[in-house]
Specification:
heterotrimer, A mainly alpha, B alpha+beta, C mainly alpha, A: mainly alpha, MetI-like fold, 10 helices, B: alpha+beta, 2 domains, six-stranded mixed beta sheet, five-stranded antiparallel beta sheet, 37% strand, elongated
Amino acid sequence: MVRSLAIEMEIQTKMKKFKFNGLLVITALVYLFLFLPVIVVILMSFHPDPIVSFPIPRFTLKWYKIFWEDYALIQSLKNSFVLGICSAVVSGIIGTLAAIGFVRSQFKGKQIFGAIILSPMILSGIITGIALLSFINYLNFPKSFPLQVVGHALLTFPYVFLVVQTQLYGLDRSIEEASMNLGANELETFFYITLPNILPSVIAGMLFGFTISIDEFVATQCWVTPSTETMPIKIFSMLRYEVTPKVNVLGTIIVLVTITLPLVAEKLIARKINVKLSREKKNK
Amino acid sequence: MADVELRGITKKYDDVTVVDNISLEVNEGEFLSFLGPSGCGKTTTLRMIAGFEEPTKGSVYIKGKLVNEEPPYMRNIGMVFQNYALFPHKTVYNNIAYGLKMRKVGKKEIKQRVEESLDVVRLSGFGDRRPDQLSGGQQQRVALARALVIRPDVLLLDEPLSNLDAKLRKEMRIETKRIQKAVGLTAIYVTHDQTEALAMSDRIAIIERGRIVQLGVPKDIYEHPQGSFVASFVGESNKIKGKIVAVNDLEAEFRSDTGLIVNIKTDTEYEVNKKVSLYARIETFEIFSTAPPEAKNTFEGKVESVSYQGGNTLYGVRLTDGTAIFVESSREKLFGKKIQPRSEVWVTISPSDIIVL
Amino acid sequence: MQILKSKAIVKTLVFLRKHKNANNFLIMLPSALWVICFLFIPLILIFVYSFSTRGEGGTIVASYGLHNYEHFITTSIYARTIIKSIIIGFEVTLVCLIVGYLPAYYLARLTTTRRVILIILLIVPFWTSVIIRTYSWMLVLGNRGAINYYLMKWGLIQEPLRLLFNEASVILGLVHIMLPFMILPIFTCIDRLDASLVDASKSLGAGKIRTFIEITLPLSLPGVSAGCLLVFIISVGAFLTPAMLGGPKDTMIAMLIQQNFLMLFDWPFGSAAAIIYLILVLIIVYFFNRVIGLDKIWSGR
């Protein structure tokens, strides 16, 4: 009797290990699924032939050279970059304001308001694209860079909103009351107390917005002109007409940018805080 | 002229009246407490003085000036919040300096006053630290320093000690009072802890359901509570219901519903058969192992429970008529024998120690 | 920053204080206005267009009627796009749910630094360009892609398999993109579950699997429903992935709209298609709200 109990316990512990390890294996596989294709792209950017074959015969940078010499491609990269920064700034402001107002208020239509704010995110990009396009066309405005900024800000500010409102919910409002008690009016309180305390999420949201803007295709294709082509537009057209490994290079660059950007930003912010601290010490 | 005056302050949220017609004056240099259970409206009243809530009716005067319309940043008030509300992104120094910066005080003067403030709360040298590097007691002191440094007209404190452990709370209680007296600042203190209120206040306002039920010095509140709420909220008492059966000037004989006869002293002449409640504080009883010579108010009973509390012991005693009372005594033994459950004891209480309502 | 203390600003603030809700309303106004001006009002225009007629060379003629809608519903090619979109939406959601639930559960159960790393790793593909991710599947599934290369190299097949440009490749590509959208809400939901509930269940004698079925699973449903809604709605309106990985039979509604606006210049018809898509989204959200309730999503967030 005792023996069979011991065996059962052993089986249970083994099963426990297996179950947990089983979960780990499944999760690992899913992660592999998520990453593998992109890794193929990165590897292929160094591959001498267009045919996917591993192991790579010899690492070469020739596609990078060809990429660098493609003027139109570099131009589109620049366009995307500038557009990304502009829309990040605009969406940062709009999204943060939306988050603050949303978290602070209590009124009947609040949920509807939330739905309105999130709608550019939920609806297919093509809808936003054709809507704005028709509007511009109706008003007889030309397609232009500012149009793209407006559209991208529209598409990205919901992300800023979500990120900021999450942090805002956890913020203790009594520090704002303390600030007002000590003599700061609402605006001063916002800039001196509230903003510094939600800054991480504001910046994170803006980074998010930047990344999404860089990558935006569906709506953007409705708003571009030949001189304001963005990177995704260029890639898409390249894939239509010529599948060259130049695309792999572009892809690798994009991936590297989107991965390193938040890391760099995090380091920057950390350093900024340290500088501020030492400056405060000096002032004393 | 009073430093703070409330006239008919009322606060309603939709149909719920949270503060109901409160009027009082706080004198210069006075330490006044709002004491009451959670939800009684004491914090709301405080916040109306500070300017974070607007009174539905009534007026708030600070140093004679009507401030109803003034936003919090235009009233010269210092406030200590329950969770201290220190700015997490600023050093201790900058936390304290904040109010001065808002008042456009010069850099040199800021430095001098901040250091002075840190000195008062005994935290000199802590200027470089950040709030998350401080203990609870230290944070509370920084919050106090921050409120003091701006030299406010009034100091408001919203249960500032409730997040501290018992021992620290006692120390900070003394500290806070010392600082207040040293600076001579008028202070309004909100708490639900009666020991705190009794120990620190010049006057206490007992608040129940939005109304001031009694306003007076601690001794009066404790020894002459007005009304059953104050009598049961402040101190721990045994309540006995019954009626007056005989009157002799300001002394009377009381008979409880269960037949207990108690001699009491009253401050007004009661008539016979008047229904009253007696409140006997647990620490006013004496416990004996044999019938004491003093015949008045001696009751025989059996011990039902013994709770050791360190400094003294709480006994649950069932008297012969069935009444159950609690007696707090520093005695543990009587004639060498330990008082235990089922011990037979006698308890006495002086007539003047009994509160009649 | 001394300007913030200026008399004018302080006076305005004191005035606004009186109307507390007006204050917050004003703060939210820019964002609301942005969406209303640049999305909702233009959509009214689209709505009007959907009843108009295509004129010469792509202009819009103010000849109103339901002809666009009729054309859409009666022509099987077009009607099929909506149905295809819904079907693909369902399939993608289903696959994402099956594949993504366990990793989300595992992630929520971790407590070590491993968890932070894994979460970051989950967000990284999220941030990576959709075009690149979709394109990468072309490198894997294409005629000269990785799979065919190795299958031929090992002599398993003589000719490359046509793995691309069919419904399966579209679903594969979409699942690849949508997985983080499914995993994150489920993970967040399970993560917020009170661990003591699981312990309580176990102390009452329920085995691991029983605990999971009766406790964890039901309580994770808000996250599951949030994830499913998100994945479904985004998948239905997807453009890039079906455009790049799908064949002509796999045209989805977003592609149809794009074709009519940017290539065929039949804006009225494209508008009708867009309105039909919008109605579809509204129906989805409405039913979701009826059956499950939108507020659950907010609490999950």
